[in-house]
User: What shape does this take?
Amino acid sequence: QVQLVESGGGLVQAGGSLRLSCAASGSIFSINAMGWYRQAPGKQRELVALISSGGSTNYADSVKGRFTISRDNAKNTVYLQMNSLKPEDTAVYYCNVEGCSGYGCYGETDFSSWGQGTQVTVSS
Assistant: This one.
């Protein structure tokens, strides 16, 4: 079983910055991808940013140039640096980690774990 623990959310004024972190622990053999999603009230959960095992990244158009996803492989931790925050960024942010829990899963994914969610509120 893989557990994710998120931290770093809070309340910030428009134009400010926050950094979210998400640490994975448990039975992890390899990680294929780490990502951040967000969900605003009344809306579906949407992808914010992804980083693959090879280091390639993908961002939602709405956050390009403002958010940066990064990772620390030694700590199984993914970060989301959020700059120039806007009120429309207000949401609960969830991290996600996918990978293999043991040998034999190479090239596949046998777990997908989610963090508990952290609230990000941006005031105008």
Notes: Residues 15 and 84 are 4 Å apart (CA to CA). The chain has no helices and eleven strands. The longest strand covers residues 30-39. The chain has a mean pLDDT of 96.
